[in-house]
Design brief:
407 residues, mainly alpha, Growth Hormone, Chain: A, 13 helices
């Protein structure tokens, strides 16, 4: 038990360090390239490969982790992030759109390798305590990650002001390289490695529960990003007249709060049976509750209620409910996954997650341009209802309905 806790804390610490650099590099790129005169559309395009390569990485990353071990893929992600940070220290004439998109693609690969590996490794470290302990450990890891990504936004902006763009990148790269060395030495080398070498065709999940959950995850995260990524910041700045610093600060605080709620999910979602984790019925219930929030915000906009109070309060409620939904999903994928196919199953699931973020990002800009924030909110509600419908196929609280050998 003591070694499991030590390894869990090591994985969590490494994930925290990576997440801070992930949030910081995004803020650094947005602010610095805006200062260089890039248009908002050009700045947005810098991150397209970051999301696109996440889809491929999660698919292939699970296969690599099953063959090489989660320890290897987690630290490969850290190493690629160090390279991505150092790439951006190049002179300004090198920093064209194509070059920076390439660096961001590398950062996207790094992020999803590290995330998939860290989350999958939690199940390998649970030796006793049952399903609810797994739920708590996953919730803390995921929630703290989201909170620290918000903190990374602040750190990136602060470092840009204090030591400049390249100084910030060198500092972040050095910190992450040191963490990489420490965690590599502390973690067991065979962590998460499959007993039998899987074939590449096995990257596609053949467990129905995992397929349905992955599809639901696709629409759940598409529902968030369809109004959060592009539409909301533009609306706050152009319609409500907020300063850029206020927009960035508010969204960073939202992400921190979102992470805190996610980490507290086991306490907020009380189970009827002691020691039991959430089920497919919990995923359905909380998705239906979540769908109400964007619909109410859209209704308020239609009725011309105070837009500032409506959007701020509505976003806080949406964030709380979305965090609970995400925590349930993050637990269920580990509960459903087979131990010997853990990396493959988790990789496939987070491929769907990345796909949802990608389509949500694209639709956020397109829908906002055509129909405004009102249209984005309706699209968000539609995606959530689709996710809810897909969770109908997930196992319920009856043990006979659950996939054998997955709990």
């Amino acid at each position: 038990m003591q070694s499991s806790l030590r390894n869990y804390l090591t994985v969590t610490g490494g994930y925290w360090a990576f997440t801070i650099t992930d949030g910081a590099i995004r803020m650094l790129v947005v602010l610095y390239f805006h200062l260089l005169g890039y248009s908002p559309f050009e700045v947005a395009m810098l991150f397209v490969f970051y999301e696109l390569f996440g889809v491929v990485t999660n698919l292939v990353g699970g296969y690599l982790a099953a063959r090489l071990g989660l320890n290897v893929t987690m630290h490969l992600g850290m190493a690629l992030q160090v390279i991505a940070l150092l790439m951006l220290t190049a002179p300004d004439p090198w920093l064209g759109v194509a070059y920076v998109m390439g660096a961001q693609a590398l950062s996207g690969i790094a992020k999803d390798l590290n995330k998939m590996s860290a989350k999958a490794s939690v199940k390998t470290l649970i030796k006793d305590g049952g399903e609810f302990k797994l739920f708590k450990w996953v919730a803390v890891l995921t929630g703290s990650k989201n909170a620290l990504k918000g903190a990374g936004f602040f750190i990136g902006a602060l470092l840009l002001e204090l030591i400049g763009f390249r100084g910030a990148l060198w500092l972040l790269a050095g910190m992450l390289a040191l963490v990489l060395l420490i965690t590599w030495l502390l973690l067991p080398g065979q962590m998460g490695k499959a007993k039998a070498k899987p074939k590449f065709t096995q990257v596609f999940a053949n467990t129905p529960a995992i397929n349905w959950l992955s599809a639901a995850r696709f629409f759940l995260f598409g529902a968030r990003d369809v109004w959060f990524v592009v539409a909301l910041p533009v609306y706050l700045a152009s319609v409500l007249g907020w300063q850029h610093s206020a927009v960035g600060g508010f969204l960073a605080l939202w992400v921190i709060g979102y992470g805190a709620v996610q980490a507290s999910a086991p306490k907020l979602i009380r189970q009827r049976h002691h020691g039991a984790g959430p089920t497919g019925r919990d995923a359905l219930l909380w998705a239906l509750i979540l769908a109400i929030s964007p619909l109410l915000i859209a209704l308020g906009l239609y009725l011309e209620w105070s837009p500032t109070q409506l959007v701020v309060i509505g976003l806080l409620i949406f964030g709380l409910l979305f965090a609970l939904n995400s925590a349930i999903h993050s637990y269920l994928i580990l509960a459903y996954a087979d131990h010997d196919k853990l990396a493959l199953n988790v990789g496939f699931y987070y491929m769907a997650n990345a796909g949802g973020r990608l389509i949500g990002t694209i639709l956020s800009g397109a829908t906002y341009q055509l129909y405004g924030l009102f249209g984005c909110l309706l699209m968000s509600a539609l995606f959530i209802l689709i996710a809810a419908a897909l969770t109908l196929r997930l196992p319920g609280p009856d043990p006979e309905c659950r996939p054998p050998g997955r709990y």
